[in-house]
Structures are given as structure tokens and as C-alpha cells.
Design brief:
Layout (H helix, E strand, L loop, with lengths): L9 H12 L15 H18 L6 H15 L14 E5 L6 E3 L4 E5 H6 L3 H16 L2 H8 L9 H11 L22 H18 L4 H12 L6 H5 L6 H11 L11 H11 L7 H10 L21 E7 L2 E6 L2 E6 L3 E6 L3 E3 L5 E3 L2 E7 L5 H15 L4 E2 L4 E2 L7 E9 L6 E10 L5 E9 L3 H14 L1 E2 L3
Parallel strand pairs: 1-3
Antiparallel strand pairs: 2-3, 4-5, 5-16, 6-7, 7-10, 8-9, 10-15, 11-13, 12-13, 13-14, 14-15
Helix pairs in contact: 2-7, 3-5, 5-8, 5-9, 8-11, 9-11
Bound molecules: zinc ion.
């Protein structure tokens, strides 16, 4: 809703600004760049994927939507000269305390929660975002790489970042250590900083914000002292920053623009106050080392799990079925159409929204056509898409599932948690409504014998009551 509140007003403002100030604004020229805009996009997306794996996203729909709404207001008024049709602008909030924000080439932008909490009005958030967006539009990342020589685009994310860090004097994305957490940033020259300030002011003015808010935000940041200057060290003051911003704002006749303290801003800050505190960079790093909230998919993690208990415990995930699993397993995740049961220590949630389990079963319903064999094959193909190393390791055999005729097939995979081979058993049967009921058991390959017994008990004891 916030996205559309000012939609009717915006075109009028654009027109006014364009007519009134066509000659009275500083023209910003993007620096020389030997890369194609598509290179910016590729580089930025690879880096963004890495960022989302390593930093905790806030994942709050309401806050994300609010920030994206501000971003879209700025994006809508980008002058034609700075538009790149390949670019895609996305806005995510990182659940991190330090006051910072950064944007990656081609459009992905990340704002720390601490930045939103420190802002005194919406204009201050917009000021930071307009500044970041301007770096993206002027393609400062690849422009900076143009000055260096060893920069290469096209490898996988880690190597791209590595090449940038190791290869250029003014690195695009510098980091503490090993793609370090929380320290992704673009460190730019004062000349680029000045450009981002000026174009940022122009974007703010066109979007109806008072550019003075950008100067205010820089003041707020400076006042944070030693706890908050991360953004400032990434975006060094090109000299007389506030005066220059004010001067440009006056040229644009934008000093009386209305946006500032909106009700939405208050609501979002209140919402953030009600949450448990944002993580510090140090906490994020510690969590990652402990493996607690670290991204999955990197392998190499040790997992210690008690063997399946001999007795069963029955759950009723929905009206249509009862599932009995070893008594020391419990439901760890339930999506719309599936539920996962696992022993303690076997379930991992990445901070990018993904999850994985090393021991246990997932019981779910997939769409079917009424043909058990075909439906099982389609299901296998869809599992293979999210598990690229999944392979069939034995022949499919007919075996009852919940008292109905079914298929069981054994598979081999490599665990994304441990990096070790894992054993998977998939069993399927048809539901009366045409759906496909599946039970997928997962265990390390060297524990397959023990767990296969447990998986068989689960599939044989399922009670289905569809009609
Ligand atoms: Zn900057």
C-alpha cells in the first residue's frame, strides 16, 4: 500500500522539477567504463547471492516492503541518461546492528536494520538509498575496476570477489577475511562520492524528498562516533559534503519538498523496536563459526545425532493422515504440503531461507496425475533440481505405503550440510484425489542400515484417511 500512496502526485512533481530546473542543476557524467552494463548485472547478482548466504536477512515482509517502496520511488524518477534496461533494483534489509548500507553493481541494495533504526525520518533513509543508487547508476563499481587491470568477470561468485579483492588497487568489494561477514562494501574515491551525493540529491528532489535529509543523515552518522562510522568510512566525505548537498538542493528548488516524517516510518521503527535486537557483526561471525545460523550448502559440518529410538510416536500433521516416527524425532519444519521429522541436531536452517536435514523423514503431498510411476518420476526430477547430486542407486520396487500399493526407490546424494555421501529412500503412493503422497528418508550413507529400518516403519505405519 505504501508503494502506491504517492503515485498520483509523483508525475506532477517530476514535471515541475524538470521545467523549473532544467538548467539549474549540476550535470554528473558517469566515469569511463570498459565493461558492459550486463557485466555489472552478472557481478552484482553473484555477489548478492553470496551476501544473502552469509548475512542474516531480516525477512520481515512489512519492513522489506516499506524499504522497497522508498527504493521504487527513487527508481521511478531515474533520468533517462542514467537508465540501464538490464539493471534490476532490489532492496533487502539485513538484520544487523551496525549502521551501514551498500548496493552492488546492477542493482541489488542491502540496508542494515541499524540504519533504519538510526534514521530520524524517512527522508534520511531515502538519502542513503539515493546515494547508494547513484553509485549503481553511475556504474562506479566497474568504473573503478576499469582503472585496475586484473579484474575479471565471469567466474563464480567467490572467485569474482577474490579477483576483485586481490586484483585491483581500489577494490570493488573489499572484505575482512575470506569473503568476510558484514564487511561487504564498496569503497570509492572522493570524486565518486561527490558524484553520488549530487546525483542522489537530484533523485531525491525528483522523488519529492527534501534532499536536506541526506545531509542530515550524514550528520547523524558522524554523531554516532565510533559505533557508527562504517558507512562513512565506505563513503568518505568528499569535502564540504553538507554544504554541497544543500547548495544542489537549493538549485533544484527542493528544500521545501514534503516527505520526511511519515506515519509509515513511525510504524516500521515501532515494529523493529518490538523485535529482538539486531545482531552485531561480531555475533554474526560467531554464529557462523558455531554453525548455528550459518548458511547451509558449504558442507564440512560435523553432525552428531542419537540413533532412531525403537518406539514410535504418532503425529497428525493434517486431517488426512497420521504419521508415526521414532519417538526421539520431532516435527522440525512444515510447509504448505509437507512436514519434516528429525532427531535433535539433524536440522539446519540457512539464513537465506533454505533448510536441510541430515537424518529423518519428510512426508508430503505432490501433485499427481493418477499414474504412480509417472508421478514418482516427476517428483524425482523436481527433487533433483534442488539436489543436483541426487542419483538413483537401485531399482524401484513395489512396496506398500500406508497399506496401499506404492513404489520405493533408493537414491544417493551428497549432503549439503556435511559434504558427505548420504542415503535417501523415497516411497510414494497415490491419494484418492490424484495427489501423490511421498515419504523421503535421509541418512548418512554409513548409517543407511540403521535408518532404513526406521524409514520402513514410517511408511508402513502411515494412516491415510482421504476419501
Ligand atoms: Zn558513496
Amino acid at each position: 500500500m505504501s508503494t502506491f500512496r504517492y503515485a498520483r502526485l509523483a508525475p506532477v512533481l517530476i514535471l515541475t522539477v524538470a521545467l523549473g530546473t532544467a538548467s539549474a542543476q549540476t550535470h554528473v557524467t558517469a566515469p569511463p567504463n570498459k565493461y558492459k552494463p550486463a557485466d555489472d548485472v552478472k557481478l552484482g547478482q553473484e555477489a548478492a547471492a553470496q551476501v544473502q548466504k552469509e548475512l542474516p536477512m531480516l525477512n520481515d515482509g512489512s519492513v522489506d516492503e516499506y524499504v522497497a517502496g522508498i527504493g521504487q520511488r527513487l527508481v521511478r524518477v531515474i533520468p533517462a541518461e542514467y537508465q540501464h534496461q538490464e539493471f534490476r533494483y532490489t532492496f533487502r534489509v539485513v538484520n544487523q546492528k551496525e549502521i551501514n548500507a551498500f548496493a552492488l553493481p546492477g542493482g541489488p541494495m542491502f540496508l542494515n536494520r541499524g540504519m533504519i533504526e538510526a534514521a530520524r525520518d524517512e527522508g534520511e533513509i531515502a538519502g542513503v538509498m539515493a546515494h547508494e543508487l547513484s553509485h549503481v547508476l553511475l556504474r562506479h563499481g566497474t568504473a573503478q575496476a576499469t582503472k585496475g587491470e586484473k579484474f575479471q568477470i565471469g567466474a563464480i561468485a567467490g572467485q569474482v570477489l577474490g579477483a576483485i579483492v586481490g586484483g585491483t588497487a581500489g577494490s570493488i568489494i573489499a572484505n575482512g577475511s575470506n569473503l568476510g561477514l558484514s564487511t561487504y562494501f564498496m569503497k570509492f574515491s572522493r570524486e565518486y562520492e561527490s558524484q553520488a551525493d549530487i546525483l542522489g540529491v537530484q533523485l531525491m528532489a525528483r522523488a519529492g524528498y527534501n534532499p536536506q535529509s541526506m545531509a542530515n543523515m550524514f550528520k547523524t552518522l558522524a554523531a554516532q562516533g565510533s559505533s557508527g562510522p562504517e558507512f562513512l568510512s565506505d563513503h568518505p566525505n568528499p569535502g564540504n559534503r553538507e554544504q554541497r548537498i544543500q547548495q544542489e538542493a537549493k538549485m533544484l528548488n527542493a528544500t521545501n519538498n514534503p516527505y520526511g516524517n511519515t506515519a509509515e516510518f513511525q510504524r516500521v521503527q515501532g515494529r523493529l523496536k518490538g523485535m529482538s535486537p539486531a545482531l552485531t557483526a561480531k555475533q554474526i561471525e560467531q554464529q557462523s563459526q558455531r554453525g548455528g545460523n550459518a548458511p547451509i550448502g558449504t558442507g564440512g559440518r560435523a553432525v552428531n545425532v542419537d540413533p532412531p529410538s525403537g518406539s514410535l510416536r504418532t503425529y497428525q500433521p493434517n486431517n488426512a493422515m497420521r504419521v508415526s516416527v521414532p519417538a526421539n524425532w520431532s516435527p522440525v519444519e512444515s510447509g504448505g504440503s509437507s512436514v519434516t521429522y528429525a532427531p535433535q541436531g539433524a536440522y539446519f536452517q540457512g539464513n537465506n531461507g533454505g533448510s536441510a536435514f541430515t537424518h529423518g523423514v519428510e512426508v508430503g503431498v505432490a501433485q499427481g496425475t493418477g499414474n504412480l510411476q509417472n508421478d514418482t518420476n516427476s517428483l524425482l526430477r523436481s527433487f533433483a533440481q534442488s539436489n543436483p547430486q541426487l542419483q538413483q542407486s537401485g531399482n524401484a520396487r513395489n512396496e506398500n505405503v500406508g497399506g496401499r500399493s506404492g513404489i520405493t526407490v533408493q537414491l544417493a546424494n551428497v549432503s549439503e550440510v556435511t559434504g558427505q555421501p548420504e542415503y535417501i529412500s523415497l516411497s510414494t503412493t497415490e491419494l484418492r484425489n490424484g495427489g501423490l503422497l511421498y515419504v523421503i528418508g535421509v541418512a548418512p550413507r554409513n548409517e543407511a542400515g540403521t535408518y532404513d529400518t526406521a524409514f520402513r516403519k514410517v511408511r508402513q505405519n502411515i494412516q491415510i484417511s482421504d476419501r
